[in-house]
Amino acid sequence: MPPAGDRRKRHEAAPGSGRSAGMEAVSRVLLVGEGNFSFAASLCGAEGTHVVATCYESEEEVSGCGGAAENVQRLREKGAEVMFSVDCTKLKDYFLPGKREFDCIHFNFPHCGRKAGVVKNRELLAHFFHSSAEVLSEEGEVHVVLCNGQGGTPADQPRREWHNSWQIVAVAAGAGFILSNIHPFKAETIHGYKCTGYRSQDKSFCVEGALSHIFTRSMPLSYFKPMICEIELENRKVSFQVPQVFVDKINRGFLEPNSNHPVRTLKEKLTAELCQAFPLQNIDFCLSLLHQGQLDGVCHSNIFWIILNLEETPSTEEMSNGLANAVSFHHVDFCRDADKNGWVNVQQECHISKQYYLRPSLLPYARAVIQRGAFLPETLYVISGLVFRKCFITPYSMPVFHEMVFVSAINRGTEKSYIQMLVNNIKTSIHSLLQTVPSFKLSMNLQEAMRFETAELNDFAAFESQLSKIQYLICVKTDTSDSHEKGSCVGVIRTAHYELVSSELVVVFASLNLDLLAMLMCGICDWRMLWTSDNRFLHQFPRGELRLFKTFSLYPPSYVHDVSFWLPDGEQFDEVAFHTIARQVSCEMVTSVQLIDSFQQSETGRRSFCYRLTFQSCDKALSRQMVAEMQLLFRKEINQHLRVTVR
Question: How much is the pTM?
């Protein structure tokens, strides 16, 4: 199983913690629900560990358990604290503020006692996790040992039906914890340990197949305040609101020189390899994120249209109420969708009367390099940056990603050999990076675009095909791919003739989706993980290296909600906008949107759709209550912006 990571890194001691700053910190371990204290006794004496062992019963009640008195005496002799009549659901009541920060909390075989059912025991765990959150250090761990089958995770063999399990991961999520590791609890290897307390008796639980579940704190699910961007456009200062789905992605700087993000590592390796084979020039000046005018051939539903506000800054009232954060950019443009239903509440007379949208591609900048004539034949020009596309919700469909575009003007008739040489050098750099992932196999090949039907293309390639004709696809297959699959398209290659430039030259354009390529190379199965703010992600990637990613959130719970609605009469339903609203209101927590039923009234002709939404986080604790609130907001938003009538 993936390791939980080094969660015990210590910093300077906090005032009142009882630790000396600058000295080796002592790990404080709390054990709750002890029966005969044999587990606590097995931990006591370990170097650098201070044990606090507690039980729910009184000292008189415990003294009747076999070996309890001897274990308590042993603990006290070795400097451990022993406490009785401690309720694990109210832990902060038993410790002074300076003594509440524990590095590890253990609860072995929790049980309400007697013949309590799964619901009662779930409630016990829920209260315990909330209580633990109040006395656990920021990087601490909570260890819970359950009998085989109780947890309700795929690690349980055999696995119980979900409703008959303790649903421990979902329960822990309610208190802000994620499951970061799980491994067998081998009672026979613990010296002197004797399990007791089954149904409040001096009997052992069934320890065969028992599992230890290790939980860590999750980054909080953030509901970001609206963000206002200020830019200079056409010699005028304008501002507009960042779309909610991009507020946490703006200015992340993944491609900056000090970044060790895998996307940056991939870009640098590609550039270094290609400059050995071609005269290469990076076009690294600031590129506007704002495009203007019509997009021929591109579905307008896939574009983030914006409305510009001529107010230079957010109003004083907005700022004082904390409703907006002002961010200045020279060439950055973000805004919400500006469709006919009025996504943004901006007065019509306040926006510039031209159509603007977030750039969906870097291709126009690559074309501009050639069209302005300031280029050197045979030189490979490289442009990279973020692009934005509305798309359906899937694990590999990205509304924002880093694109890398290569453009070169070459002699007519040499384009095929040039393209093959370009792809071969890209392959060489990829295989060089994969040397740090020896157990992972990946193959890259060039395929003619005409071999693919439109339905076979992934979202990236399908959108690229709308921009202009594609000659070749750059496809990647991993060792987990089906042998009959053609692979995932991570890049496209197209050629063009510019007679005004030179009739003897052909221009080659190659576009790569760096995010998708990084995902495939590192074994990342969800695009959202690339944007996580949890430092356990970046800590897995040393500067200049790619590694096989190990998730720090195991078996995240998923929640399913259905929504049914009537479509507005005489209007076409925009399914991409439906998915975009789901992204926005859920903070990207929706992982699947499926049409499960449709109906049309014979009398009126009215149509009704029923969609099923699946909510799941890849890196944060997501509780049932959070999802219920998201679902209610989603119903409200689709009613307001898509003018559907929720049933």
Answer: 0.86
